[in-house]
Design brief:
The chain has 384 residues and is mainly beta. Helices cover 4% and strands 33% of the residues. Strands 1, 4, 5, 8, 9, 10, 11, 13, 14, 16, 18, 19, 20 and 21 form a 14-stranded mixed sheet that branches. Strands 3-22-25 form a three-stranded mixed sheet, with no helix packed on it. It has a two-stranded parallel sheet with strand order 2-17. Strand 23 and strand 24 form a beta hairpin.
Length: 384
């Protein structure tokens, strides 16, 4: 269903030498997550006990309203056939509802497939810049191929239980059992469940809630606000799929643009909102998902080092001329350096200010700095 919703040199620096600040006016995030090859992949059960020797990164999460109080923790590994992800989202209170997903945590991953696909606006194909253009076939006949984004494990939890592994399905990206959908997009207004030739949902996942965050979280995040616990998601997907038209195809040594999203069930009295979800990397650009191909296996503890980071200063909105306005539930963002996004009927489109930056072959991702005010942080505003 439709919703109005690459290989370069290995970067070796992953984590900063000291814990990240839990929240501040200056948003600093790693620009890379390293996936190490493993010979013993984790059991997909929502427990992080098998990730204790794996490298991790902590990334701030930012939404239209500002930063989330907590960083998200990310793990990654792979073997000969699959990619494995561990995602942790602390919260001040546990919330779960079997009938209304807005009172449940929800997540999604995004992979850059098209060479021109931007993190903001979910690809931002100019030929599918509105719902009307998309419905009229603006993305047909390959016009938007270079802007394609693979959205994986877009998961809403109402029909699920903790600690249960929910598997794959064929024929479509729509997961009718667990609502853990495999999707693709050309823009914020042009998004579909996988539906092309040989479409399938290759994602498997499990989740849990625990009152104690993972041990790596305390190592990486300093002075985190008080929390009641954290949601932990374990996800896996085959490196290659039967539908390369819509899925990122992965191989050892690859570097692919990557990001995550999180919907907070405590955002409002009625749960999360479509426009209120949080995205990784200071909401500035893709992170680099690096499939390490140096022949080593994942081992050791969380590593420190000189990290490639992006520093986003969330001040001086007036001096930069950035601004955001909302009318009748719509969100419009204008930024001299960024893009403009708007939608109708109260639906909003994902928007992250700043210009999508490419990486240079054979080198680590450069440090990115964006001067912007909180008023310009109009991000993650897609109807999911």
């Amino acid at each position: 269903m439709m919703f109005s919703k690459q290989s370069l040199g290995l970067a070796t620096a992953i984590l900063s030498a000291s814990p990240l600040p839990s929240h501040s006016q200056s948003c600093e995030s790693p620009t890379e997550i390293l996936c190490q090859r493993t010979s013993t992949p984790p059991t997909v059960d929502g427990s992080f006990s098998e990730w204790t020797s794996s490298q991790a990164i902590a990334t701030p999460l930012v939404s239209l309203a500002g930063p989330y109080p907590y960083h998200a923790l990310m793990f990654c590994s792979y073997d000969d056939s699959k990619l494995y992800l561990g995602l942790e989202y602390p919260a001040s209170e546990f919330s779960f509802n079997t009938t209304d997903n807005h009172f449940n945590a929800a997540i999604a991953t995004m992979f850059q497939v098209g060479k021109d696909a931007t993190f903001y606006m979910m690809g931002d194909c100019p030929f599918a810049a509105t719902e009307e253009q998309c419905a009229a076939g603006g993305a047909a006949n390959g016009t938007c191929t270079d802007y394609l984004v693979d959205i994986g494990a877009h998961w809403e939890l109402a029909t699920t239980e903790q600690g249960v592994e929910y598997g794959t399905n064929g024929g479509t990206g729509n997961d009718e059992a667990a609502n853990k959908d495999d999707e693709y997009a050309y823009s914020a207004f042009c998004r579909f469940d996988d539906d092309l030739t040989d479409a399938a949902n290759e994602w498997t996942g499990a989740w849990t809630w625990g009152e104690t965050p993972s041990s790596q979280y305390a190592e990486l995040v300093a002075d985190a606000p008080a929390m009641a616990g954290s949601y932990k998601f374990e996800l896996t997907r085959t490196l290659t799929t039967a539908s390369p038209e819509t899925d990122a195809q992965l191989a050892p040594g690859d570097v692919v643009g990557f990001g995550i999203a999180y919907w907070d069930p405590l955002e409002t009295e009625t749960g999360w909102t479509d426009a209120g979800h949080y995205v990784s990397g200071c909401a500035a650009d893709w992170m680099d998902l690096v499939l390490d191909d140096d022949g080593g296996m994942a081992e050791g503890t969380v590593q420190d080092g000189d990290a490639a980071t992006e520093d986003v200063t969330m001040e001086d909105a007036e001096s930069t001329g950035d601004g955001a306005t909302a009318e009748n539930g719509d969100v419009t963002a204008e930024n001299g350096d960024g893009e403009a996004a708007s939608s109708e009927n109260g639906e909003t489109a994902e928007e992250t200010p700043g210009t999508a930056e490419g990486t240079t072959e054979g080198s680590a991702a450069a440090v990115r700095r964006f001067g912007m005010g909180m008023a310009a942080m109009v991000v993650a505003s897609v109807v999911f």
